[in-house]
Each structure stands twice: as C-alpha cells, then as structure tokens.
Amino acid sequence: MPLPLQGLSAVVTGAGRGLGRAEALELARLGAAVVVNDYGQPGRDGSGEASTAPAERVAEEIRAAGGRAVAHTGDVSDFEAARGLVALATDTYGKLDVLVNNAGILRDRMVFSMSEDEWDSVIRVHLKGHFNTTHFASAHWRERSKASGGPVYGRVVNTSSEAFLAGSAGQPNYAAAKGGIVGLTTSTALALRKYGVTANAICPRARTRMTEDVFAGFGEPAHGELDPLAPEHVAPLVGYLASPAASRITGQLLVVHGGMVAVVDRPRVAAQFDSAKETFSYEELDGVLGPYYADRAPDETFAATEVLSLKRA
Question: What are the boundaries of the signal sequence (predicted)?
Fold first, then answer.
C-alpha cells in the first residue's frame, strides 16, 4: 500500500527542534520528501548565533530512516529567505505540495512594560513569517493551476495558539501574532480553494523549548510513559491535514494535545440588544448592558481549565 503522502513534497519551518521536528519526521514517515527549515538560533527569544546544525540534524535523521530531506537555514521573517525556501522545495522535488508554518520566538512582557522591539520581533517572526512562506507557496500553486487548467494539490497548516483564544497576560505580542495567523489562515483558505488548496490552523499544546515555563508545573511522565504534552501527540494531526484524506477540511482551527483534538467553532453572538429607536443612547446602553454584565464574573479561560484538567488526570 502506498503511504498517504507518497510522491508529495513538504516544507516545515522551525523544524530543527520540538514541534517542527516532530512534524517533519511524521510527514517523512508518511512518505513526503521534506525541506527542513530552521534558522538555528539557540535562544527561544531569537537570540544567539544562527546555526545550520538543528536543520541539518533533522534532515539527516529523516534520510537515515530511508526518507528524503534537505535542510534550509534561512530566516522565514525575511521575505527573500522565504522565497528561497519555497524555491529550494520546487528545485529539489519539482514542486511543493505541503507547507507547515511553525517557526516562532518568544519575548514575553506585560503590555505596559513591552518595548517596541519586543513587539515587532515576535510579530515579524510569527505573523510575517507565516505570510512570507504562504505568499510564495500560494503563488506557486496558482501558477501550477493556471498551467494545468484545473485544481492542484496544496496544503497549508499554520500554527496558532490558545494564547490568542484565552488571552495571555504576559504575551500581548505572541497572542496578537497568533490571532493574526488565524485571520491569515481563513483568508488564505478562501483565496486558494478554487485552486484545490486547503489551509488550516492548529493550536498545539506541547512541551517544547518555547513552552518550558508554561508547563513547568506538570512534571515529567513516569518511566516508560509518553508525556501527554510530547510534540509527537501533535504531529499526526499535521500529517492528516497534509494528506489527501483531508481535502474537505479548510479554514478550520483545531486545538490538539495528548489524545485530544477539538474543532473550534467560529465566534457566535452571545446576546443581542436592539434599540427601539434608530440608535442607542448612553442611557439605553446602560439599561441593557449594565444588567447583562452585573452578575457575570470574568470567565476562566477555557485554556486554563483544560490545562488544569490535564494536570488532574
């Protein structure tokens, strides 16, 4: 039986460690030829000297297992580097079929303490980085579709976060970038569906270099047990979304962690108030919104609730 991704090629950004590495290995296991992208800076805040080692190491790991892989060590937040990344895939494998955007950094600070650079750098790597690669990949698919006169194979899997859904007090830059990625994903899904391309976003919960502080209180699993927060729990969903089996799934946001996948619905109207006149006055707004919120304590974020339940288990 052929593998699900046999004959397809994929780019995975931020694939030198953690989630990106697990995703690249899973795509290769499913038969894809992979371009492993990682800028290779040692600090999770994007600091330190860039290195080719992380990307090369994962590419070699794939080749040692019998797969096909090449390394790319450019910074995806650089427009030209992203162009080169997509070009490497098309030059090496003849085409690009799957794009998994995972690269990112953290520079945490409360909004009143955050510097302009701390804001800009996180938005640049996460949101602009997602845009850059998507721009060149989508142009590639559009040209292929025009040349063939019909739909082509294309999959985009973007990485958002529950920080955007739930809010994250010390991460206004990260939460904003991750929210922007969801907007980019749904827009991309609409723009590319006529070419046969799907685009989806995931909110993964995993213990990685970037989340070591967030999950510090959860402890390591017992000997012989797989960590419920291991990146390997996330990778199969990415592999599935990249496959032909997921052709009808597009414009979706999915939360994933150990043994759980949740489809996040679009925001719904919780309550509606209509003025008897053409427009509301201040007094009328106070009359309807005041009572509505009077007995409503700020809700606990569902992300925090889920994390606690995971800890209790």
Answer: none
